[in-house]
Amino acid sequence: MVSRIPARSLLLALLLAACGDNPAGPIPGGGDPENISLVRVVLGPEGGGEALESTRVDPDGAQLPLPPGPATATLALRQGVTYTGHVEILNELDPEAVVNVVEEIEAEADFHRFFYTLSCPGVTVPVASFNVDTQIPPAPLGTTFRLVVAADAPPTGSCALTIELRHFETNKGEGTGPNFETDLALEFPVSVSP
Predict the structure, then answer these.
(1) Interatomic CA distance for residues 129 and 148, integer angstroms
(2) Suppose 172 and one of 32, 157, 168, 191 were both cysteines; which one would form an S-S bond, judging by CB atoms 3.0 to 4.6 Å apart?
């Protein structure tokens, strides 16, 4: 005798199988922090000019969110310049199946938020410049952002940009509540010059 599955139960099972992901769970598809092998920050000067970038690599994906190898470059900022920025996060552990983790974070934007902290006086990343999630009203996500260097920012060769990615168990609201895990917390060296 063949048992019949009610149509409603079968539809629910198919939807769950098709989704294959819990948005409140860890980053899907190999995007868990232990599978992230590369984090890059890219800053393009508004009005033109060569983009700045710095990368931190974790070749076997075993270190993040702990600090992996050193940054590949210092982000050499200029006084009075505003930069359009974005982060790239990849799982390159299988070169034939590279996973763009940022796409997955954006697909689950309501559960993630980036934080950018600079130790350089006069350099800020305004939250209002972040791209946003799908909540109503929309709240900051921050895979794209603007970095503003004041015209009177003091020159320095030894400050840092810290990038933190928080993952929330429920919709994050503004992303400032306590119910989160830290997926990434990486520091990139920064300098400021005239």
Answers:
(1) 10
(2) 168
Instruction: Report the percentage of the chain scoring pLDDT > 90.
Output: 66
Alpha carbon distance 166, 147 (integer Å): 20
Q: Distance of CA 153 to CAs 76, 119, 160, Å? A: 13, 12, 14
- What number of other Cβ atoms are within 10 A of residue 132's Cβ? 13
Contact assessment for residue 27 and residue 105, using Cβ atoms and an 8 Å cutoff: yes
Render pLDDT for 42-101 as a digit per residue (tens, 0 to 9). 999 999 999 999 999 987 777 665 657 899 999 999 999 999 999 999 999 888 999 999
Q: For the whole model, what pTM was predicted?
A: 0.81
Query: Tens digit of pLDDT for each residue in 165-181?
Result: 999 988 898 999 888 99
Q: Which of 190, 191, 192, 140 is nearest to 166 (CA)?
A: 140
